[in-house]
Amino acid sequence: MSMLTTRACRLVLRRTLVSHRGLATTTNTIVPPPSSTSTDSSSSSTNNNQSASTTTSPSTSTKTATDKTKKKHIVFGNRGPSLQDFLNSTTTSPSSKPALDPTTTTPLDIPYLSMKGRQLGQGSKYFVEVYGCQMNVNDTEILMAIMNGAGYTKADDHEDADIVFLVTCAIRENAETRIWNRLADLKRKRLGPLKDRAPLVGVLGCMAERLKDKLLDSDKMVDLVCGPDAYRSIPHLLSISETTRQGVANVMLSADETYADIVPLRISPESFSAHLSIMRGCNNMCSFCVVPFTRGNERSRDVESILKEVKQLSDQGVKDLTLLGQNVNSYRDTSKDGVELSEGVGAELSNPGFNTIYKRKDGGMRFTELLDKVSLIDPEMRIRFTSPHPKDFPTALLHLMASRPNICSQIHMPAQSGSTTVLSKMRRGYSREAYFELVDNIRTIVPGVALSSDFITGFCGETDEDHKDTMDLMRRVEYEMAYMFMYSRREGTHAGRRLQDDVPEDVKLRRLQDIIGIFHKGAENRFRARVGLPAGECVLVEGRSRRDKSRWIGRADGGFKIVFDDDLILPTIESSLTSGGVGGGEKGRVQIKLGDYVQVVTTSATSTSFQGKAVARTSLTEFSRFQSLLNQGSVGRMSSGFGVALPPVASQLGLGGHATLNISP
């Protein structure tokens, strides 16, 4: 390799992948003709005519291989050439290498270094398909901002796009299978009558990070592969792919990338709900989980950039904001502002029964203090957060949630299993007893809180007794929502390398069906207990019901859905004092609108949703005050308080038809 060529490669990395260290590797794969039998091997050799280490499969020695079957890939990653690459490079004697003439040696053409301005994609359109978690939705909005900034425009349909991105998930095998099926669909378009108009295909996200080689080697399926930390480089990668006709990948993991300086371009700007990423990565290293390998170590955005974006979303009319992170409540801002503004609140673990496999660091602003500041920006904007780890719920965080009307009483508490033995194998860092203690603490401090969880059945070595422990935990806790799956082995994880996936598939499925049934029974019990609460539910109107377009659907504080009729309602809860209640005619009543907060009295429930009757338009502040006074029992003094009329359906709930509750201030 010439020195000039080497310098050119280093220049590429320095200019385009700021704060990353990696190596651009050109991989040559010889794909045998259909009549040949392909082999899978990791051995490689070095080609001195390439700009970086060149990897060639053993099938290069097969005489049936032709130049037309050769596929070249350019990969930017954290890992350089392997020991095998070095050993193979010594098979050629230095004396046999021709001498290089520096006067005739030129660096490789690096197509994107000569780009003018930011309009690299001018005239080209992209389309994004999102799979997986809410973090992928937020990543898509970051991607859209990057692409638009480079001159690309978003297509309304993949048929009209020059590049189709699939933002992928790798958490389970089924998620990856969906992507492979979709790639097969796109490949058929490439081979069809309109192949000249077929778009480039890019695979992004966790699956890209995990399966970069397999994706690039998939015949005519993928042109670009990019991991979650390298989205800034996508316009450049597209330039390389279009210019060189080679597959290209950037799967470098970063120690500091948070995209804090990029304002996401919202997928649905008309929506009253939004997501905001506050941290990325995970340090927990649970034995079953691939996230630390696809998303990297934890790093948090600085508090000022978060507060600025929250204010922007508030100004845009957002009323329901979800803070995101792979381990969101492990947030720790160690920037100058984060350290200086922190008072050290919320740095402890949930209770003494929780621990970590890594050494926790001191200093910086923790999640409790961040949530405090976020909630003060707009008292009429609800704040949620996901996905947390049970170890990071200090008592201070729970008291903050209980004291702020706009911090939703909804907590995701991924248990994964109810067996202490299985939890230990999963490296979760707690026992079932510690988890129960945390649940009790949460429900004591935050009354009416809605709990959700994740569960895995059939984990390595799980016995019938372990399964019974999980079922017992679910019966005792009774979650309002749960995500339940069979164990799916992930290569590279601790369980994938060290533990035996020894539970038969039919047993996994049976156990999954067991816990699904228990969940639905428990959720129905919890929901039915909420039917007809005197204060009702404060619901954000999100749209029309899919099943009945004449009815509205909205989300309550606890995150559950409520469907209700399109009635004329009171303008405020307090207005019931002078309106004569629900039976007082239509005078002064208002139409329900998208984005309204509406007081709804629930009339029935299943294990997944509620039916209800809308009463009045309200605000978070007014509804919270009403709840508080009602809980205090301050009822009956008509002259000194505001009245709240219950709808006619209240008589069916045992609350008294057409009754008016008079709440004193």
TrEMBL record:
The lineage's top-level taxon is Eukaryota
A single GO molecular function term of this UniProt record: tRNA-2-methylthio-N(6)-dimethylallyladenosine(37) synthase activity
What InterPro entries does the record point to? Elp3/MiaA/NifB-like_rSAM, Methylthiotransferase, Methylthiotransferase_CS, Methylthiotransferase_N, Methylthiotransferase_N_sf, MiaB_methiolase, rSAM, rSAM_horseshoe
Instruction: Return the GO cellular component terms, semicolon-separated.
Output: cytosol; mitochondrion
Quote the Gene3D superfamilies the UniProt record gives.
Methylthiotransferase, N-terminal domain, tm_1862 like domain
UniProt keyword Signal present = no
Q: Which residues form the MTTase N-terminal domain?
A: 124-243
The protein's required cofactor(s) are namely: [4Fe-4S] cluster
* Domain Radical SAM core span(s) in chain numbering: 268-525
Per the record, which residues fall in region Disordered?
A: 24-107
The alphabetical list of record keywords is: 4Fe-4S, Iron, Iron-sulfur, Metal-binding, S-adenosyl-L-methionine
A GO BP term, please? regulation of primary metabolic process
Residue spans with biased composition (Polar residues)? 85-96
Which segment of the chain is annotated as a signal peptide? none
Q: Where do the coiled-coil regions begin and end?
A: none
Regions of compositional bias (Low complexity) in chain numbering: 25-64
Keyword match Iron-sulfur = yes
Every copy of the TRAM domain together lies at 528-616
The entry's family comment says: Belongs to the methylthiotransferase family. MiaB subfamily.
Supply the name of the protein.
CDK5 regulatory subunit associated protein 1
